[in-house]
Amino acid sequence: METYLTHLLEDLHAITLARWRRCPPHFYQAGMRDDLHQPPEGFLEKPQPDALPGETEAAIGEIENWLHSKPAITMFDHFGLEAEQFPPAEKLTEAQAHPLVDALVRLWVAHNFLPTLPNKAPARIFYPMMLARMAEPAMLLEHGMNGIEFCDFDPEGCPFGEAWCDCKEYLSHDVPVRV
Ligand SMILES: [Zn+2]
User: Fold this and answer.
1) Which protein residues have a CB closer than 5 Å to ligand 1 (ion)?
2) By CB atoms within 10 Å of each CB, which of 2, 76, 78, 107 scores lowest?
3) Count of alpha carbons within 13 angstroms of residue 109, beta-carbon side
Protein backbone atom coordinates (compact mmCIF):
# COMPACT_ATOMS: atom_id res chain seq x y z
CA MET A 1 0.00 0.00 0.00
CA GLU A 2 2.78 2.47 0.87
CA THR A 3 4.41 2.13 -2.56
CA TYR A 4 1.05 2.50 -4.27
CA LEU A 5 0.22 5.61 -2.25
CA THR A 6 3.60 7.14 -3.04
CA HIS A 7 2.93 6.72 -6.77
CA LEU A 8 -0.61 8.05 -6.44
CA LEU A 9 0.64 11.15 -4.59
CA GLU A 10 3.26 11.67 -7.32
CA ASP A 11 0.54 11.44 -9.99
CA LEU A 12 -1.64 13.96 -8.13
CA HIS A 13 1.30 16.34 -7.81
CA ALA A 14 2.13 16.00 -11.53
CA ILE A 15 -1.47 16.77 -12.56
CA THR A 16 -1.58 19.72 -10.14
CA LEU A 17 1.70 21.10 -11.47
CA ALA A 18 0.67 20.66 -15.12
CA ARG A 19 -2.54 22.56 -14.46
CA TRP A 20 -0.68 25.40 -12.72
CA ARG A 21 1.67 25.69 -15.67
CA ARG A 22 -1.15 25.65 -18.23
CA CYS A 23 -3.53 27.88 -16.31
CA PRO A 24 -2.65 29.21 -12.84
CA PRO A 25 -5.70 29.20 -10.55
CA HIS A 26 -7.97 32.20 -10.67
CA PHE A 27 -7.33 33.25 -7.06
CA TYR A 28 -3.61 33.29 -7.78
CA GLN A 29 -4.04 35.46 -10.85
CA ALA A 30 -6.21 37.70 -8.69
CA GLY A 31 -3.39 38.05 -6.13
CA MET A 32 -4.74 35.88 -3.27
CA ARG A 33 -1.85 33.85 -1.90
CA ASP A 34 -2.43 32.15 1.41
CA ASP A 35 -0.86 28.95 2.73
CA LEU A 36 -3.31 26.56 1.16
CA HIS A 37 -2.96 28.16 -2.22
CA GLN A 38 0.78 28.20 -2.73
CA PRO A 39 2.06 27.03 -6.10
CA PRO A 40 3.16 23.38 -6.16
CA GLU A 41 6.81 22.50 -5.96
CA GLY A 42 8.33 22.94 -9.42
CA PHE A 43 6.17 25.87 -10.45
CA LEU A 44 8.36 28.80 -11.40
CA GLU A 45 6.57 31.97 -10.58
CA LYS A 46 6.43 34.54 -13.35
CA PRO A 47 5.23 38.07 -12.71
CA GLN A 48 1.52 38.29 -13.50
CA PRO A 49 0.03 41.40 -15.07
CA ASP A 50 -2.50 43.16 -12.85
CA ALA A 51 -5.37 42.21 -15.10
CA LEU A 52 -5.10 39.76 -17.93
CA PRO A 53 -6.32 41.09 -21.28
CA GLY A 54 -9.83 39.86 -21.98
CA GLU A 55 -10.21 38.49 -18.45
CA THR A 56 -13.56 40.15 -17.74
CA GLU A 57 -15.09 39.06 -21.02
CA ALA A 58 -13.81 35.53 -20.55
CA ALA A 59 -15.23 35.40 -17.03
CA ILE A 60 -18.65 36.55 -18.24
CA GLY A 61 -18.53 33.97 -21.04
CA GLU A 62 -17.85 31.22 -18.52
CA ILE A 63 -20.77 32.25 -16.35
CA GLU A 64 -23.03 32.32 -19.43
CA ASN A 65 -21.95 28.80 -20.28
CA TRP A 66 -22.51 27.77 -16.70
CA LEU A 67 -26.05 29.11 -16.73
CA HIS A 68 -27.04 27.76 -20.12
CA SER A 69 -25.52 24.33 -20.22
CA LYS A 70 -25.58 21.42 -17.85
CA PRO A 71 -22.11 20.31 -16.86
CA ALA A 72 -21.86 16.71 -17.99
CA ILE A 73 -18.41 15.58 -17.04
CA THR A 74 -17.14 14.86 -13.58
CA MET A 75 -14.22 16.26 -11.63
CA PHE A 76 -12.48 12.89 -12.12
CA ASP A 77 -12.82 13.45 -15.89
CA HIS A 78 -11.46 16.97 -15.67
CA PHE A 79 -8.46 15.70 -13.73
CA GLY A 80 -7.87 12.68 -15.99
CA LEU A 81 -8.29 10.34 -13.02
CA GLU A 82 -10.44 7.27 -12.31
CA ALA A 83 -12.29 6.55 -9.09
CA GLU A 84 -10.70 3.08 -9.09
CA GLN A 85 -7.25 4.62 -8.60
CA PHE A 86 -8.21 5.66 -5.07
CA PRO A 87 -8.09 3.10 -2.28
CA PRO A 88 -11.19 3.04 -0.08
CA ALA A 89 -10.94 4.86 3.23
CA GLU A 90 -11.42 1.59 5.14
CA LYS A 91 -8.05 0.39 3.81
CA LEU A 92 -6.22 3.51 4.96
CA THR A 93 -4.93 4.69 8.30
CA GLU A 94 -5.46 8.31 9.28
CA ALA A 95 -1.73 8.88 8.63
CA GLN A 96 -2.17 7.56 5.08
CA ALA A 97 -5.41 9.42 4.39
CA HIS A 98 -4.04 12.77 5.52
CA PRO A 99 -1.50 13.36 2.71
CA LEU A 100 -4.06 12.08 0.19
CA VAL A 101 -6.59 14.67 1.34
CA ASP A 102 -3.91 17.39 1.21
CA ALA A 103 -2.92 16.37 -2.32
CA LEU A 104 -6.57 16.28 -3.42
CA VAL A 105 -7.20 19.74 -1.96
CA ARG A 106 -4.21 21.09 -3.87
CA LEU A 107 -5.48 19.35 -7.02
CA TRP A 108 -8.96 20.85 -6.57
CA VAL A 109 -7.63 24.32 -5.83
CA ALA A 110 -5.40 24.18 -8.92
CA HIS A 111 -8.61 23.67 -10.92
CA ASN A 112 -10.51 26.48 -9.17
CA PHE A 113 -12.60 24.14 -7.04
CA LEU A 114 -12.33 25.68 -3.58
CA PRO A 115 -13.63 23.39 -0.84
CA THR A 116 -14.67 24.65 2.57
CA LEU A 117 -12.48 22.34 4.65
CA PRO A 118 -13.77 20.72 7.81
CA ASN A 119 -12.20 21.91 11.06
CA LYS A 120 -12.83 18.74 13.02
CA ALA A 121 -13.51 15.80 10.71
CA PRO A 122 -10.52 13.44 10.35
CA ALA A 123 -9.03 12.84 6.91
CA ARG A 124 -10.54 9.33 6.84
CA ILE A 125 -14.00 10.93 7.09
CA PHE A 126 -13.37 13.74 4.61
CA TYR A 127 -11.50 11.66 2.00
CA PRO A 128 -14.49 9.54 0.86
CA MET A 129 -16.60 12.70 0.68
CA MET A 130 -14.05 14.23 -1.68
CA LEU A 131 -14.11 11.05 -3.80
CA ALA A 132 -17.91 11.12 -3.95
CA ARG A 133 -17.89 14.76 -4.99
CA MET A 134 -15.32 14.07 -7.70
CA ALA A 135 -17.69 11.50 -9.24
CA GLU A 136 -20.37 14.18 -9.75
CA PRO A 137 -20.57 16.44 -12.80
CA ALA A 138 -18.79 19.75 -12.37
CA MET A 139 -18.07 22.79 -14.49
CA LEU A 140 -14.38 23.58 -14.76
CA LEU A 141 -13.79 27.34 -14.67
CA GLU A 142 -10.61 29.03 -15.85
CA HIS A 143 -11.62 32.58 -14.95
CA GLY A 144 -13.63 32.07 -11.80
CA MET A 145 -13.91 29.83 -8.74
CA ASN A 146 -16.30 27.09 -7.66
CA GLY A 147 -16.84 27.16 -3.92
CA ILE A 148 -17.69 23.66 -2.69
CA GLU A 149 -19.52 23.24 0.61
CA PHE A 150 -20.12 19.93 2.33
CA CYS A 151 -21.89 20.99 5.52
CA ASP A 152 -25.05 23.03 5.13
CA PHE A 153 -25.50 24.14 8.75
CA ASP A 154 -27.83 21.40 9.81
CA PRO A 155 -25.89 19.33 12.41
CA GLU A 156 -28.43 16.49 12.41
CA GLY A 157 -28.15 16.04 8.67
CA CYS A 158 -24.45 16.88 8.47
CA PRO A 159 -22.56 14.70 5.99
CA PHE A 160 -19.55 14.70 8.34
CA GLY A 161 -21.73 13.17 11.03
CA GLU A 162 -23.00 15.11 14.01
CA ALA A 163 -19.83 14.49 16.04
CA TRP A 164 -17.63 16.10 13.39
CA CYS A 165 -19.97 18.87 12.31
CA ASP A 166 -18.39 22.33 12.49
CA CYS A 167 -21.65 24.19 12.38
CA LYS A 168 -22.78 23.28 15.91
CA GLU A 169 -20.33 25.89 17.28
CA TYR A 170 -21.36 28.44 14.72
CA LEU A 171 -25.00 27.91 15.54
CA SER A 172 -24.52 28.06 19.30
CA HIS A 173 -21.87 30.78 19.72
CA ASP A 174 -22.41 33.35 17.03
CA VAL A 175 -18.95 32.66 15.67
CA PRO A 176 -18.57 34.23 12.23
CA VAL A 177 -18.66 31.54 9.57
CA ARG A 178 -15.36 30.97 7.83
CA VAL A 179 -15.87 30.80 4.08
ZN1 LIG B 1 -22.26 20.23 9.61
Assistant:
1) 151, 158, 165, 167
2) 2
3) 23
- Extended strands (E) in the chain: 113-115, 146-148
CA of 149 to the centre of ligand 1 (A): 10
The rounded Å distance from CA 122 to ligand 1 centre is 14
Residues 18-22: contacts with CB under 8 Å, at least 24 apart: 19/107, 19/110, 19/111, 20/110
Q: What digits encode the pLDDT tens for the residues 93-142?
A: 999 999 999 999 999 999 999 998 888 899 999 999 999 999 999 989 88
- Inter-axis angle of helices 94-110 and 123-134, to 10 degrees? 40
Beta partners for 46? none
Q: Is the confidence at residue 71, as pLDDT, over 70?
A: no
Q: What is the mean pLDDT of the chain?
A: 83
Ligand 1 centroid from CA 3, angstroms: 34
Residue 81 CB neighbours (<10 A): 19
